[in-house]
């Protein structure tokens, strides 16, 4: 080996022993030769384990808190909706509840269905908007029923909204839906026998078919083997 080469290697070894090494660029950098003690590693492991447990505990607490918060939030929404309904501010009520149209709470959805239907009834609502709101109301009430079949108000408002849709779909559909409407009114009364509004509405249903003009009865008979019908005795029974 040449003397110059041997000298370079010996110099490189001396630098390595002192913890420094020179690269091809001539710049030197330190080499860490420190090895952590076992006690330090254990300590760090305990610290990370504690942090992990704290993180898991925090996540669980947040998850429980979110469930409670969601429950309180739904109650707040219903309370605010009932306040706006009582004040007669239909437009503000519909705007407020429209934020929750993706809700999975039947109580929120039937209130939105009612608000949509009430907004459609306003004289200042444009005809195209009125039709859109009528169908929107039916879909919302139907969704409320799918979520909770035992919700009396959902049955009532689905029946009302279904009747409104009939105004756009012709006599055949309107008469065909009559049985469905009456069944939902009856189910609503079963679930809430003290609901005077539903009792009145089923009385109106009976009165409407008791007073059905002869030509409409002919149409109904032609369309259905057993068209819906009623008598004034049924009207008195339902309303008493």
From TrEMBL:
It is found in: Cytoplasm, Cytoskeleton. It holds the Pfam family RMD1-3. Its main location: cytoplasm. It comes from the Eukaryota. One of its GO terms (cellular component) is mitochondrion. One of its GO terms (molecular function) is microtubule binding. InterPro entries: RMD1-3_a_helical_rpt, TPR-like_helical_dom_sf. Keywords: Cytoplasm, Cytoskeleton, Repeat, TPR repeat. Interacts with microtubules. Belongs to the RMDN family. This is Regulator of microtubule dynamics protein 1. It comes from Engystomops pustulosus.
């Amino acid at each position: 080996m040449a003397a110059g080469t041997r000298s370079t290697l010996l110099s490189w070894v001396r630098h390595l022993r002192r913890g420094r090494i020179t690269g091809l660029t001539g710049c030197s950098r330190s080499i860490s030769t420190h090895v952590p003690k076992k006690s330090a590693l254990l300590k760090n492991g305990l610290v990370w384990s504690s942090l992990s447990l704290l993180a898991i505990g925090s996540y669980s607490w947040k998850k429980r808190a979110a469930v409670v918060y969601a429950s309180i939030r739904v109650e707040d929404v219903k309370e605010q909706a009932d306040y706006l309904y009582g004040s007669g501010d239909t437009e503000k009520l519909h705007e407020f509840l429209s934020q929750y149209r993706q809700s999975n709470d039947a109580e929120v959805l039937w209130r939105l269905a009612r608000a949509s239907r009430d907004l459609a009834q306003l004289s200042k609502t444009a005809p195209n908007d009125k039709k859109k709101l009528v169908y929107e109301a039916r879909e919302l009430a139907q969704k409320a029923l799918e979520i909770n079949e035992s919700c009396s108000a959902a049955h009532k408002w689905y029946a009302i909204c279904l009747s409104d849709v009939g105004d756009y779909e012709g006599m055949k559909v309107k008469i065909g839906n009559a049985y469905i409407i009456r069944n939902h009114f009856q189910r609503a009364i079963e679930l809430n026998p003290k609901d005077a509004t539903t009792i009145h509405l089923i009385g109106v249903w009976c009165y409407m078919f008791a007073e059905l003009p002869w030509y409409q009865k002919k149409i109904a008979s032609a369309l259905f083997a057993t068209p819906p019908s009623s008598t004034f005795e049924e009207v008195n029974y339902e309303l008493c």
